Amino acid sequence: MAKSDKVGKETAKRKRIIMLPEVKNYIIQPNRITNAVYNYTLIQEKIFTAIMFYLQEPINQSMKNVNIYQLDLFSKSEKVRITIPLREIAKPRQYGEVKEAMQQMAGIVINIPYVDANEKKRKKITNLFNFDVPEQAEYQSTVIIEMEKMVAEILIDIDKDPSNQRPINYTRYIYEIAQNARNKYTARLYKIISSWKKKGGFIIALDNLKEQLGVADQYPNYYDFKRRVLLPAYEELLEKADCWFNCKAKDFEIREGKTVTHLSFKVITPEFAEEDGKKTAYIERIVRDNFRFTDADIMSIESVLKSPEIERQDIIKKIIEVSEYIAENEIGNPKAYLIKSLLSQFNK
């Protein structure tokens, strides 16, 4: 894997630096791969991501409506073969672990949803890869991955809009972010939220997400799932990704009674966070101009203004509500009343 320096991008909302890789290699993959059901280990996920990275040339050709079966990758042999440097996956001292991970991957069955030529939804249930590995690892060691042509087509072929033949239903994400993940669910969730980046978010049934991540029969208690799967991924992506989610937000969990049934993922980007920062500055101007807040007063509600769990629009709505109440009632100290109202509302 290519080593790179980091470049910082400050998000105004949290006043922190999001450390993005200076060298960013983008991967494009079909959404059927992003949404596939499997449960790889961390090393196996890195292997899979590296395979998708080394399939980018044919994927880019598919984006341009080139018949992938005309490419050398498909025409030279009965099976599709790609060669990947071991250093793209792990350090040489981890080679034994990589070999074991590949041996296990060769026997793992995954479900890949796709739509056939008749627009019927189907699932391809398959083990994807065979591996050819050297006995001893060196810095220049490579791994040969072999797959059936139908499997390669599922991994490569990008759907097209029938009306204009433009590519649709694909995910674009940064290779280095996925490969640098320290938790096996971080890369999976990063790819999933990246597929929704343009739309800004999505709601998914908790059971569906658990199935997609291959943990349908684990974590019957939602808070165990949150602690072991969501929170570690949230913390990693928040620090180093081009997009992330906030599982601490009050509107993240959707309940039926007391049971969490769905999750509302808002896809946050540095640009989105910057916009939130502008709203926070706007709120400060409102309270300074209308309630004569001082710097000390602003500090007294800092826990509200800087909380990543509170929507800026909800704060503005509360200020308007309090302002209207003050206008209709005799309040001796409007500023103190607003401070108390904001803290009571949001610091529960």
Question: What do these coordinates show?
Answer:
The chain has 348 residues and is α+β, with helices and mostly antiparallel strands. Among the domains are: 158 residues, Orthogonal Bundle (Arc Repressor Mutant, subunit A); 76 residues. The protein is 44% helix and 19% strand. It has 15 helices and twelve strands. It has a three-stranded antiparallel beta sheet with strand order 4-8-7. A three-stranded antiparallel beta sheet has the order 10-12-11. The protein has a two-stranded antiparallel sheet with strand order 1-2. It is elongated and about 85 Å long. The two termini are 46 Å apart.
The averaged pLDDT comes out at 87
Indicate the low-confidence ranges by residue numbers: 1-5, 11-17
Helix content: 40-55%
Sheet having the most strands: 3 strands, antiparallel
Protein name: Replication initiation protein
Family: Belongs to the initiator RepB protein family.
Keywords: Plasmid
Pfam families: Rep3_C, Rep3_N
